[in-house]
Give the backbone structure.
Amino acid sequence: MTKKHLPEQQVKAICDILADTDRGLTKSEIGTILGQCRIQVQNDGSSSNGLYYNIGLNKRNWLYNCLAEDFNKSQSCDKIFAFIQEALNPIRYTVESKRAKYEYLLNETNKVLILIGMQISREGKLNEVTAARSLDEADRRVDMLRRKLYERSIHPEVQRFCVTDYLRKDYFDAVFEASKSLGNRVRELTGLEYDGSALFQKAFARNDPYLFMNSMKTDSEINEFNGLRELLECIYHLVRNPAAHTPKINWRIDETKALDVLTVISLAHKYLDECYPIASTGT
């Protein structure tokens, strides 16, 4: 993406969040990230003569000085954006005790970024979005849309394909991309190169399947197996194919319908989680 200019006020606000005294990153963590982004660590003004100690700048102001000095030298926000992405890299928060901190930092940072038309994904990547026009709108879009999506326990594969489109309220692209995730998933599981109905019928062929989800010994198991194939085909017929062949302006979809569609696609992915290719049966 083409990264936008980050105004001084936004930089200060982001420093206040990421270097928050109680919920932000530690000074050591910030120093490490600055080094990884090749941003020079500035002196914070602290000193000691053995008798007296000067505590210097607080974390927020010290971080701002580091970022501002780098911008003054380079006249570019590239390293500042790199710092934000690295600070919110989810791999830093894999320990359960850090999850609450991650949610706070991600959501609060996005409330700042969305005002200039940017948003950082849960993968730690910056994306362009429609800019919020007010603080109220920023709060609603960051908190409410994300909460609605995750309250439904949307499958990670759906999130991976469509969360950016959904958060910028592009529901057409969100459901279109999510529907394509199903074909991509089945191709990854089977190695087949087909698409659409041909792919699903080949992968779940009754007499020569590439994927199993049960032993297919009872009528109920056979019905479940056939039902998953039909669900996948149904989603393609209802969502993927119309979206692919209909001008975007003529294919209306609101948030409620988008959430319903994403939930159904998520359900299909959860069934695919239970599938295994024939080569992995060990028989």
